Each structure stands twice: as structure tokens, then as C-alpha cells.
Fold these 2 entries.
Entry 1:
Amino acid sequence: MVDDSGMSKSIQPQQTAAFYAQAVASFGISLTAMTVALIYLPAQPWVRAFLALGLLYTVTSTVVLCKVVRDRQELSDVTTRVDQARLDKLLTEHDPFKVDS
């Protein structure tokens, strides 16, 4: 895609509202189901507390992993855009018909 200035624009991926809602609902339902299962689990309180702590650790580490993956992807996109800008500048400044005297 080319804008009015002649530079190319990258196409940004879009998320639909339905996809976002499905992801949020899925996370909420699974977390609620696990919490209810831990509450009604026929086990001693320390066993339920240990499993709840494991669930909390899994959820927090998943959120951190998602952030790291997103940040790495954004860094890759920025690096690609900077490299593309440098290449565009070199190509616009290059004159193949220039004769050195």
C-alpha cells in the first residue's frame, strides 16, 4: 500500500470485537470453573490452597509470557520498519547515472 507521499504503509493486523470477546469470555469461564472446582474439591484445606497457588502461578506466568511474546513481536516490527526506512532512503539518494569525475 502506498500513501500520498510515496512511502509504503504496513498493513496492521486487526482483531475483531467477537474474537476479543471470545478470548475474554474463555479466560473468565476457565478461571471461574477452576476456582469453583478448587472450592468444592473434597480435600483438606492445605491441598486446596496448594492447588489454588498453582493455579495463580499458572495464570500470572501466562500473562507474563503473553506480554513477552507481544513485546518481542513489536520490537521485530519496529526493527523491520527502521531497516525499510534506511533502505528507502538509500534507494532514493542513489543515482545510477552519476558519473564520478
Entry 2:
Amino acid sequence: MGGDYAVIALYIAGMIGVGWIGLRLAKTKSDYLVAGRRLGWFMYSGTMSAVVLGGASTVGGVKLGYTYGISGAWLVITIGVGILVLHAVFARRLVKLRVYTVGEMLDLRYGGRASAVSGVVMWGYTLMLTVTSTLAFASIFKVLFSIPSWAGIAIGGSIVVLYSVLGGMWSITLTDIAQFVIKTIGILFVLLPVALVSAGGFSGMAEKLDASYFEFTSIGGETILTYFLIYTFGLLIGQDIWQRVFTARTPRVATGGGVISGVYCLVYGIAGALIGTAAKVLYPDLGSAQDAFATIAERLLPTGVRGLVLAAALSALMSTSSGALIACATTTTSDLFRKIGLKSGEVLRNRVTTLVLGIVAIGIAMLVDDVVNALTIAYDILVGGLLVTIVGALFWKRGTREGAYASMVAGTVSVIAFMIIDGVAANSPIYWGLGVSLVVYVGVSLATPRTPDSILSVWTQRLHGSEAAEDLSASETRQELTQ
């Protein structure tokens, strides 16, 4: 595997080198957290695709294809649908608000300290999302070096933490573009056609597998619905995704680039399921379905090409892991630290926070053994706790601060309670979380005084991108440069 090692080594060296470039670009809070809000169409769509298609979408997507066939694509398809809806409905508004976190948006809309509650929920979500992608490093490095899972997690996680700490969102954006290109070539143009030909094409696979492997709904209607509730809605409100939206140069860039990214996600989801289906034909007796991706890459591809495909897998894992890590750090500094009087604008504080959280995520990943379950925990808590409050903030003027508080707490507690009662993989936590959150939000909002007009007027000005909002943004930038 000498050729593979050389390709992987070049890839890793390139990622670290880009991190050093990002170090020179990240001079202000805006640079470090949202790449100065300067991304154009290509960089925006590439980095958006990279951040959402990570370990669960690649290793997990192939695993679901190995287990269920073509219907295993639904997990990634629902992610793609979420990206499409986000950019068709929400993106223009989010870019105009010129905030850094979901919590800041809620504070602006409800006129209070909503970020204190939402920040805790979002922190848990982004940390677990970092863990899922970091966990998936184990299967790749196991194939490459035959090392224990914990060592693979430590190696992959350390690389991500290093370049994320150095340049923040600029490093992550530059590495994401490289990772997007590598991932597209490695997965779509190399592994997919090789896997299909090796398995005998569609006719050959159909002869060796049960017919359910080629039914688009064989994974189950309830599971598909749950994927939509968790992942489509989760993509609408996740800090890691919003933070990428905030990097767009203009609302038009966000909308157009996001639609391109959403379509790419749909194609990627089907490709992963087909690769998993081919793996089931070729290697029907794997000890763990989670090893399907690494196994088919190791056994089918020649040296050098195999290294490229494994680098593509690493690209998928690193892009999502780094995006979630910077989102977790941003939530910590902008929402949580700010509540205890610490300034969030200092780049050094953001770097130290990113480093500490990265180490914590690596430690947790060593204790978790299922990437899809870990992702389910993250999205269940996010959607059950925050979806109703965020959508209400954007579309229902009668929603109040008290309703927002009560809804976030009730939804989160309900999700956690039913995870304990029915299990992490059950569908009930998200149903109960959303139901309770909605009832509490509407009930408490109607029972409490309306949000004052003075708060709503500021919200409306920012939402429509008024000159006052632009002046405020310019003032914030000058303050960052003087810190």
C-alpha cells in the first residue's frame, strides 16, 4: 500500500498547509467565524456540500446501502432536501440578519436572552455532530494502517483540530473546496463505477440479492418520515449550516449556491446506497456493515487509486467534523461565554475554545461505537428542542420570549426522556419532542404579552437588510479590528 500511503500523506500535508494559509487570513472575528462574509458561488456551493456530506453520509450512507439496498439513500436524500428548502426559503433572510449564531438571531427576534437556552441545546448538537465525523475516522485508518479504532480517531481528529484552530472558517473553507473536489472524483467517478461493474451491474446484483434491495421504500415508511423530520428539519436550523450561510457574499449567492449544493447531495446519496448494495453482493458476510465502505475500497481498487478514494472518505469526514467544530466553538464564545461577561470578538479566545472542544470531541468519539446513532442523538435534540422556536421567530409575530423559552426546554426534555424510555434509535423521541414543543410554544405565547413593537421594528429592519443594519455591521467590523 505504499502508493496509497503516499497519496494520503500528500492529502494530509495539503490540509495542514491550507490551515497555515488560513492563519494569515483570519485577522478578525468575522474572518475567523464566517470567512469575512466574502464567499462567491463556487466556493459557497462547494463548502456547503462538503460540510453536510460527512461521515454519516459517506460511511453511514454506504452502510445503509449494504443493509437495505437503494432505499439506504434516504438518509442523504433528506439532507439534500433540507439544503434545498433552506436556500429556497430561509437563506436570503439569514444573510441579511448579519449575525453569527442561531442564538443571536433568537435574541434579536424575541428581545431577550434566548441564546442562553438555545446555546446549550445548539452546543450539544454541534459537539455530537463533531463526534460523529471524528468517530468515522476509525474505519478509514483501520484499513490504512491496521491500527485500533482509538488511534484512528486520534490521528484524524488531531488533523482537523489543527487546521481548524489555525485559520478558523477561512482554513475550513479552503480545505473544504479541496475536499469537495477530491470527494467528487473519488466517490462519484472512481468508486461508484468500479463497484457497480465488479458486482455485475444492475442485472448481476438483482440476481444475487433479494428484490427488497431494489425497492426505494424497503427501509420503511416510518423510517423515511423520521429521516425527514430529523435531517431535513435539522438542516434548516443547525448552527453548522447557518454559519456557512453567513459566509455568502450576497443573499443571491447563498440562494443559487445552496440550490446547486442540494442537488449534489441527492446525487451523492444515491451513489452511496449503490456502492453499499454492490458491497453486499461482493462481500455478503462482513462482520459489521459499517466496514462496507472501507472494505470495498481496499479490496477492489489498485494502489494509488485506492489511496485517492480513501482520501475522498477522509475529505468527507474532515469537512463535516471541522464545520461542526467551528460551529460548536462559535456557539460557546458568542452565546455562552457572552452570557457570563466574556468578550466573543477576540480571535485568540476563539482559537483556544476550538482547541479545547476538539480535544473533548476526540475523547467522546473514542467512547461511541455507532456513527448513525450518534448523529441521531444530535439531530433529535436539535430538532425537538429548537425547530418550533426558530420557525416561529421567522414566520409568527405573535411568538413571545416566554413561549420561546418554554418551548425549547419542554422539547429538549421530552426528546431526552423518550430516548431513555424507548431507546436512541426509536422514532418516538422526535415525535414527542416536536409535539410538546409546538403545543407549549403556541400556548405560552398566546398567554403572555406580545413582543414589544420596539423589538420587532429592529428585527424587521435587520431582516430586510436596511441601511441601518449595514451601518451596524460596518461598526462591528471596526470594533473587531481594534480588539
